[in-house]
Write a structure and sequence with these properties.
Largest sheet of chain A: 5 strands, mixed
Shape of chain A: globular
CATH class of the largest domain in chain B: Alpha Beta
Structural class of chain A: alpha+beta
Number of domains of chain B: 3
Radius of gyration of chain B: 27 Å
CATH class of the largest domain in chain A: Alpha Beta
Oligomer: heterodimer
Strand content of chain B: 15-25%
Distance between the termini of chain B: 60 Å
Radius of gyration of chain A: 15 Å
Strand order of the largest sheet of chain B: 11-12-9-19-16-17-18
CATH topology of the largest domain in chain A: Ubiquitin-like (UB roll)
Structural class of chain B: alpha+beta
Number of domains of chain A: 2
CATH architecture of the largest domain in chain A: Roll
Largest sheet of chain B: 7 strands, mixed
CATH superfamily of the largest domain in chain B: Aldehyde oxidase/xanthine dehydrogenase, molybdopterin binding domain
Helix content of chain B: 25-40%
Shape of chain B: globular
CATH topology of the largest domain in chain B: Aldehyde Oxidoreductase, domain 4
Number of strands of chain B: 28
Order of helices and strands of chain A: EEHEEEHHHH
């Protein structure tokens, strides 16, 4: 059995220890906000927080996630209130197709948790792993600054 | 999530913005705002609360509006409901949008049009019937109230979700009128508004789908979870057109969770209770394929064949004046050859379809650009009647032309049929399958000749093009040898009307690699060619590229875009060494767009695109906020292809398989994009309001603008893409 703590809830799952965390979250636990994009940690669509750090869940075996605090996009709101990154995303109308945006929001959340006042190079470094095909980067940058209180 | 919780997300944003003192641009509607329905697809039976097929009013005055187009990021899912609301005169804050039913469209004789989301047509071809649906619903509600009050309908009006009789001060909400309104027979359909009468359409409004796409609740096709659902991963024959000879499935049959190994003529699939298990098992299979003669082809052969074919014979596609003679006699002829490769769509959401096939019904859950034609194809595949197909339209994780053909749906149906699978089955292409089983942007090569007069006027253009044909690749006939998509940007549709002699000849040339629509279609390569060459001609003539273009056109739209670009980009201001500015102007999918790129050539020869200015004339627009977003994103989408995009073929198969070898532009390399609209309004030749599309006109200008900026900065002319293949140190030494 594999025990995963996702968004504060504990799940005991009878799954292979090498199953990537992504597929445990999406299929076994049933939280579909975290997306599959490449399967090889190239695109960032599957980004979740593991102990507060942005991690590509498509390439993390569940065995390595046991005993850790896992947060998905569904776990960012508290008492129905979205976190400040999500609010900034809505205010700037960042999403287009929206498929990569869960991962983008998770990466930006991890950045602001670590660096509350990021400069341009901090934003570059934190967001370089997340591809957006619609090209929403201009608004992503703006939304991160808004969330950091710089807008 | 309940409606109240969803609405509170917008409400919170508003209050948060107020608390920090910032002005929140866009949220002009006080209080709650319109949103998309949680279940994105409309029910397949008529809602008892319908005024007509497009509008239903719930007892709590919630206004349900049906959107006939898919939402793949382009924003039509917000724009078309705005047009409906404009006519309906409803309370926008009570609007909930859902995708119109495909099954009803089949049964009720195309009441929702063709449901085809492609060609930047979302607004520009659907506004007449969408506006008519809203106006018709409004007229029925007014008529119902007038009958109740026994007053003439002309003395009543609709205002913010109510019908009002001004003389008596009476009013009734839409919700109270809906049952009577549905029974109203109008003597004549009401006239629709002209854009100058719009009060709401044309204003900057937030996207309806931003909240759901920021909190993970938006449901894409891949997110379908039906009871008892199984998951399939599939691998097609790597060589297009090839066959599966044999596959030994003994190694995977007994693996955990595997329920089926399904062999198709040209593919093999594994079905399991978890996609990962299916895909891991699929990777262990060693199928034997027969690729036929195509297995001996590669990109080097193709590239040479396209170049060699430039000498003809070509079919004349445009012939104004006598370009051949003018070129032959000219003292100053500029000649250049360009080429561009195949490109993959690489939508962020890999193609997928979920099907539930029973003996008298097929349910489909997916996001499609062409749900209606996909449903019709599904009927053929299954032998069911079209009205037995129930297509549940979901959000598309990118489209760009890929999600038109239903190839993934065909796979899902064939696997379900061959495997006798009567539970819901989700077939998901791995990223590698998605990239290697795509239908690609056509490859092409071109030779351009221009004749300049001694005083630097462009007297003639002579264009020889060899390009893949989408029509031929998708099984359509091209009896006269002309495929309009291959001519976009070099044929009749160009922003210039003052080039006296113009010849375009073309050969349509395909290989075994399938080709299809890719955002901006022919404009994705032809606008790069023509606009780079116009820049070459301007320099050869010793003229400023912007002023040179002005001399080629007096079209109102082209001039407006050039003027706006000049103004916003600071065109003509000196730039330091190593930096450059480049311009392009295009007509694409019914709009005119121009861009100015600013680049820096770095010490190591690498090109940094610092900023792109974009000016666009789409004549009329519904929501400038979303138009801006399309243009910002379109430029970056185009730049990714310009810098890195290249699909190559080896032994008949596509080499690239994932984002490690088919690179994308990432945030640190993305330029700032400054957008401006240059709307000239106006009417078309039939006297109807002119509408342009922006989803693709935003893409077509970018590559040439950047290439021309590189020339300005370095003196190096880029005539072949992608840029990654050009030794960048050459740039630094120039």
């Amino acid at each position: 059995m594999i025990t995963l703590k996702v968004n504060g809830e504990t799940h005991s799952l009878d799954i292979e220890k090498e199953m990537p965390l992504l597929w445990a979250i999406r299929t076994e636990i049933g939280l579909t906000g975290t997306k599959y994009g490449c399967g090889i940690a190239q695109c960032g669509a599957c980004t979740v927080l593991v102990d507060g750090k942005a991690v590509r869940s498509c390439s993390l075996p569940v065995a390595n996630a046991e005993g850790k605090e896992i947060t998905t996009i569904e776990g960012l709101s508290h008492n129905g209130t979205l976190n400040k990154v999500q609010q900034a995303w809505i205010a700037e109308d960042v999403p287009q197709c929206g498929y990569c945006q869960s991962g983008q929001v998770m990466a930006a959340t991890a950045l602001l948790n670590r660096t509350p006042n990021p400069d341009e190079s901090d934003i570059d470094a934190a967001m370089a792993g997340n591809i957006c095909r619609c090209g929403t980067y201009v608004r992503i940058r703006r939304a991160i600054k808004r969330a950091a209180g710089k807008a | 999530m309940t409606r109240h919780e969803k609405l509170s997300r917008r409400e919170f944003v508003i209050s948060a913005a107020t608390a920090t003192g910032g002005l929140l641009v866009g949220l002009t509607v006080p209080g709650y705002a319109a949103e998309f329905a949680d279940q994105t697809w409309a029910a397949d039976s008529a809602d008892p609360r319908e005024v007509n097929a497009w509008v239903a009013i719930e007892p709590d005055e919630t206004v349900i509006l049906r959107c006939p187009m898919a939402e793949m990021g382009q924003g039509t899912g917000s724009g078309l409901p705005m047009l409906l609301a404009e006519e309906l005169e409803c309370d926008w804050s009570k609007v909930k949008v859902e995708f119109s039913s495909v099954n009803r469209n089949i049964r009720e004789h195309n009441i929702y049009g063709d449901q085809l989301t492609a060609g930047s047509r979302g607004i520009r071809t659907s506004w007449p019937y969408v506006q008519q649906a809203g106006a018709s619903a409004r007229a029925r509600l007014i008529q119902a109230a007038a009958m109740k009050w026994n007053v003439p309908a002309k003395d009543c009006s609709a205002v913010q979700g109510k019908v009002v009789h001004k003389a008596s001060g009476r009013s009734l909400s839409f919700g109270a009128l809906v049952a009577d309104a549905a029974k109203v027979k109008l003597a004549a359909e009401p006239a629709i508004k002209t854009p100058d009468q719009f009060k709401f359409a044309g204003t900057r409004q937030p996207r309806l789908d931003s909240p759901a796409k920021s909190d993970g609740s938006a449901k894409f096709g891949i997110d379908t979870r039906e009871k008892g659902q199984l998951f399939a991963s599939i691998m097609s024959c790597p060589v297009f057109g090839g066959k599966l000879v044999s596959v030994d499935d003994s190694a995977v049959k007994n693996r955990r969770g595997i329920s089926h190994v399904v062999k198709l003529d040209d593919a093999v699939a594994v079905v399991a209770d978890n996609y990962w298990r299916a895909n891991e098992a699929l990777k262990l299979l060693k199928p034997v394929w027969d690729g036929g003669a195509a297995a001996h082809t590669d990109s080097a052969q193709f590239n040479k064949a396209y170049r060699d074919a430039l000498d003809g014979p070509l079919v004349t596609a445009r012939n104004d004046g006598d370009a051949r003679s003018v070129i032959a006699k000219s003292q100053h002829v500029v000649t250049a050859e360009y080429e561009t490769p195949l490109l993959a769509h690489a939508t962020m959401e890999p193609c997928n379809a979920t099907v539930h096939l029973t003996k008298d019904r097929l349910d489909i859950w997916m996001g499609s650009q062409s749900a209606l034609s996909n449903a019709e194809m599904a009927a053929e595949e299954t032998g069911l009647k079209p009205e037995q197909i129930y297509f549940h339209q979901m959000y598309l994780g990118g489209g760009f032309g890929r999600r038109t053909f239903g190839d993934e749906l065909r796979h899902a149906i064939r696997v379900a049929k061959a495997g006798n699978i009567d539970v819901p089955l989700q077939l998901l292409w791995s990223r590698e399958q998605d990239m290697r089983a795509d239908r690609y942007r056509p490859q092409s090569a071109i030779r351009l000749k221009g004749a300049l007069s001694p005083d630097g006027k462009l007297e003639a253009l002579y264009i020889q093009s060899v390009c893949g044909s989408i029509a031929m690749s998708t099984g359509r006939k091209v009896p006269d040898g002309i495929d309009g998509t291959a001519l976009e940007g070099i044929g009749p549709s160009v922003p210039y009307n003052k080039v006296p002699n113009w010849y375009t000849g073309q050969m349509l040339k395909n290989t075994h690699v399938p080709v299809a629509y890719w955002r901006a279609v022919g404009g994705s390569q032809n606008c790069f060619y023509l606009e780079s060459f116009i820049d070459e001609l301007a320099h050869a003539a010793g003229r400023d590229p912007l002023e040179f273009r002005r001399s080629l056109t007096d079209r109102v739209d082209s001039v407006a875009v050039l003027n706006k670009l000049e103004q916003i980009s600071g065109w003509g201001k000196p730039m330091p060494a190593g930096r450059g500015r480049g311009l392009s102007l295009v007509e694409n999918h019914g709009a005119v767009g121009g861009q100015v790129a600013e680049v820096t050539i770095q010490a190591n020869g690498a090109v940094k695109v610092d900023r792109i200015y974009a000016a666009t004339d789409a004549y009329h627009v519904v929501n400038p906020n979303l138009v801006d977003a399309q243009i910002e994103g379109g430029a970056i989408f185009a730049m990714a292809a310009m810098m890195y995009g290249e699909i190559t073929v080896k032994n008949g198969a596509v080499v690239q398989g994932n984002f490690n070898d088919y690179r994308m532009l990432r945030l640190p390399d993305a330029p700032d994009v400054v957008t401006a609209l240059a709307l000239t309004g106006g009417k078309d030749k039939d006297g109807k309001p002119k509408w342009g599309g922006v989803g693709e006109c935003s893409v077509a200008p970018t590559a040439a603008a950047i290439a021309n900026a590189i020339f300005a900065a370095s003196g190096k002319r880029i005539r072949s893409l992608p840029l990654k293949n050009i030794r960048l140190t050459e740039l630094a030494s120039l």
